[in-house]
Amino acid sequence: xxxxxxxxxxxxxxxxxxxxxxxxxxxxxxxxxxxxxxxxxxxxxxxxxxxxxxxxxxxxxxxxxxxxxxxxxxxxxxxxxxxxxxxxxxxxxxxxxxxxxxxxxxxxxxxxxxxxxxxxxxxxxxxxxxxxxxxxxxxxxxxxxxxxxxxxxxxxxxxxxxxxxxxxxxxxxxxxxxxxxxxxxxxxxxxxxxxxxxxxxxxxxxxxxxxxxxxxxxxxxxxxxxxxxxxxxxxxxxxxxxxxxxxxxxxxxxxxxxxxxxxxxxxxxxxxxxxxxxxxxxxxxxxxxxxxxxxxxxx
Length: 299
Hints:
The chain is mainly alpha-helical. It has a domain at 90-298: Arginase, Chain A, CATH 3.40.800. 38% of the residues lie in helices and 9% in strands. The protein is built from nine helices and six strands. The chain has helices spanning 26-37, 54-57, 63-73, 79-82, 141-159, 185-202, 221-233, 243-250, 274-298; strands spanning 6-7, 46-47, 101-106, 130-135, 164-168, 207-211. It has a two-stranded parallel sheet. Strands 3-4 form a two-stranded parallel sheet. Strand 5 (164-168), helix 6 and strand 6 form a beta-alpha-beta unit.
């Protein structure tokens, strides 16, 4: 049995909203091709997925939600009603038996639909198991990683999970066209490291990683998502991106492809509010973790 497997199928490319929609599945194939180019796959490590049954979906979703998604897929769900189910919005899903869910993202003050605030702690049986940490706009690497390490480490220590499921959005990067954060590839190298470490600390290595947001499909997503599999495999590529991959996709890409896995130090202009943003993010983390910190002090 393989220690790690990569779930992939070319059929992913048949799923799209429209040609110009930011949720472009080509990003998955370009990521896969990058990993293939650097020799990251051994025989038997890539597995094609199957369609989930409705019974399997019902393990983590209500019947009403499943029906709403089916109607939305058929174009029969009114737009106003879709928001009742969180379709197209940021949220942290929770369900019975789930230990915890933590989401670190940009504050909803500047992004539709404005959800994901600290006070959103889950619903019903899941209340108290969701931790939303909305970071201020223009957050940089140091503050983002400090927030991530503090929150995820303390939450994992408190709940001691059986398995870690990480949803790896790549839309916190400076290049992302939809958000207003100022992080670089540094966070996408460090985030999988911590997930991997915590998986071995609490879960006997059980770690499931999936993709997420990320809408610069050429400069950000391939490098960010490839880092997850490389971390699982214990591989550290040289900083230069493979020439073969650059030549293959360079003509199709709408922007110039990055020459390195890392970003240049002068990627973006200096942020004048850095200290204020850093302090505000630390306060947000403290608010989000207050319930479990209080519970620990009470024991």
